[in-house]
Design a protein that fits this description.
102 residues, elongated, alpha+beta, 2 helices, single chain
């Protein structure tokens, strides 16, 4: 991504999300089973050329959420780097594999 870069981390889902999964038809599952069904939270720390000392932090929690990264003002994550495309990439959660996909 040009001279900018993104650091990603996967984290355990928030307790409210795990509870929501338990309430939506998974009442027979124990807490560990329900936690594995809830998507992991994806944290993105964006280091752009113009603000490398102050990275922006973005969190993605929900399966339905698709995040578009690029330099266009219409992107969910805007990176100020002229070497990037207007819409460089997108990140979404794949329900079949239960993984975040770039």
């Amino acid at each position: 991504m040009g001279e900018s870069y993104i650091v990603t981390n996967l984290c355990s889902p928030e307790p409210e999300i795990v509870q929501e999964y338990a309430l939506n038809g998974n009442s027979g599952a124990n807490q560990t089973d329900v936690s594995s069904l809830a998507p992991p939270k994806l944290k993105l720390r964006v280091f752009s050329v113009s603000r490398s000392d102050q990275p922006d932090l973005f969190c993605c929690q929900f399966e339905e959420q698709e995040v578009v990264i690029g330099r266009s003002p219409n992107c969910d994550i805007r990176v100020d780097d002229e070497l990037l495309s207007k819409m460089q990439a997108s990140i979404s959660f794949d329900l079949a594999s239960r993984e975040w996909v770039l």
